[in-house]
Write a structure and sequence with these properties.
Chain A is an alpha/beta fold. Chain A has helices at residues 3-17, 19-22, 28-35, 38-54, 58-72, and strands spanning 75-76, 81-82, 95-96, 99-100, 105-106, 111-113, 127-128, 133-134, 139-141, 145-146, 151-152, 157-158, 166-170. In chain A, the strands form 4 sheets. Chain A has a 5-stranded parallel sheet with strand order 1-3-6-9-12. A 4-stranded parallel sheet of chain A has the order 5-8-11-13, with no helix packed on it. Chain A has a two-stranded parallel ribbon with strand order 2-4. By secondary structure, chain B is an alpha/beta fold. Chain B folds into 2 domains: 1-69, no CATH class; 93-181, 3 Solenoid (UDP N-Acetylglucosamine Acyltransferase, domain 1). Chain B contains 3 helices and 13 strands. Chain B has helices spanning 7-25, 34-50, 54-68, and strands at 77-78, 91-92, 95-96, 101-102, 107-109, 126-127, 132-133, 138-140, 144-145, 150-151, 156-157, 166-167, 172-176. The termini of chain B are far apart. Classes of the chains: A alpha/beta, B alpha/beta. Chain A binds chain B through residues 62, 66, 69-70, 73-75, 92-93, 95, 109, 111, 113, 116-121, 137, 139, 141, 151-152, 155-160, 162-163, 165-172, and chain B through 23-27, 30, 32-34, 67-69, 85-86, 88-89, 101, 103-105, 132-136, 150, 152-154, 169-177, 179-180. Strand 13 of chain A pairs antiparallel with strand 13 of chain B, so a sheet runs across the interface.
């Protein structure tokens, strides 16, 4: 798909799925506000860097990725393939090095990438299917496959394959509350 | 009394960092890449701190936090071969050995309420050589982490870790969507 088609799909998701913009409808003002919002700007810079990377302008792609790191503190590898309709509600701290299908949603400070021993290559990163939601603080590491429509909860560490249509949660979701020391 | 390193020693450390970063990435890494820039600025601020220019060190430290988003105070001592691939959010306040790998979202520092000094400063941990910290892991409090230890993703070490050990956190659990009802 062309970059333009991908971006219009991204903007559509920003307009209709972001609670900040959904209430204001589809007016020109709402569109402008969605275009200028960080979730869309971050994806826009990533799309440009991926477009440059596909044309083998690796240096320029690196500059655009560096711009994303500098402004939004989001480290989206230019080589990673992400389908149309990606939505990053809170870009800071996002790390993505892998490939994903359509309709990806990534909440704040999610790490999707190869194992800690390197090399930091897209082929070593996770392969995500379509319509996947990744909750805040989750980690997906290594060359794992995640099926279509899977939802990943808060603070999940996923380092093996996940089936389609599943809900993945962390085993340590329960907090203990200790009474105050008097 | 603190050691007073020369700039050529610091440059040798920076070169070791760059060599290891290049091996780790499996390709060339630009000097402006934040993974290199944050390590360079940390080495510069640590050098200034050790040479007795605390205000200049503080200025470089804050520039580092502003530019790359990592918090590497000049008081921390980190050996050569430091790799921080995605520096946004990385925080290290500790004494660390050589060849340290810090993945995104990992942190090393003190825990509230434990302020013993074991060599790194009040309440700060001491890490050995070749320690790997996976994403979203932590080392908190005045503890010792041995050589070649691995803190796995999502795990937090708050007690001493022996040499070569792995600290494993909670693993994922799969539910089918129908099960939720």
């Amino acid at each position: 798909m062309s970059m333009r088609a991908d971006l219009s799909e991204d903007l559509r998701r920003c307009l209709y799925q972001s609670p900040a913009h959904r209430a204001r409808g589809d007016s020109l003002k709402a569109r402008l506000s969605a275009v200028l919002s960080p979730p869309f700007q971050c994806v826009l810079i990533f799309r440009i860097s991926h477009w440059l990377w596909r044309r083998r302008w690796y240096w320029a792609a690196g500059v655009m990725a560096g711009l994303n790191r500098l402004i939004f503190k989001a480290s989206l590898e230019p080589a990673s393939r992400i389908g149309p309709g990606v939505f990053l509600p809170h870009p800071p701290g996002t790390v993505f090095c892998g490939s994903a299908g359509r309709g990806l949603t990534v909440y704040s400070i999610v790490t999707c990438g190869p194992c800690a021993d390197g090399p930091w290559r897209v082929e070593q990163g996770p392969v995500l299917g379509d319509n996947i939601t990744i909750g805040a603080h989750s980690v997906i590491q290594g060359p794992v496959r995640v099926g279509d429509g899977t939802r990943i909860g808060f603070a999940v560490v996923l380092n093996r394959d996940a089936p389609s249509g599943a809900l993945v949660i962390s085993r340590a979701m329960r907090a203990t509350i200790q009474p105050a020391k008097s | 009394m603190q050691a007073r390193p020369t700039w050529s020693e610091v440059q040798a450390m920076i070169e070791a960092d760059r060599t290891r970063l290049r091996q780790w990435y499996g390709g060339p890494v630009s000097r402006l890449h934040p993974a290199f820039a944050c390590v360079y600025l940390y080495r510069l601020s640590h050098y200034l701190y050790q040479r007795g220019h605390p205000y200049a060190a503080r200025f470089v430290w804050h520039c580092n936090t502003y530019i790359t988003g990592s918090d590497l105070p000049p008081m921390a001592e980190i050996g050569a071969g430091l790799v921080i691939p995605c520096p946004a959010g990385a925080a290290v306040a500790a004494k660390v050995g050589r060849n340290f790998t810090l993945m995104p979202g990992a942190g090393v520092g003190s825990e509230i309420g434990r302020y013993e000094d074991i060599g790194a400063g009040p309440g700060l941990p001491v890490l050995g050589d070749d320690v790997v910290m996976e994403p979203r892991s932590g080392v908190l409090g005045p503890i010792r982490v041995g050589h070649r230890a691995r803190i796995c993703a999502g795990a937090t070490a708050t007690a001493d870790v022996p040499d070569g050990a792995s600290v494993v956190g909670p693993l994922a659990r799969f539910l089918k969507l129908e099960e939720r009802k």
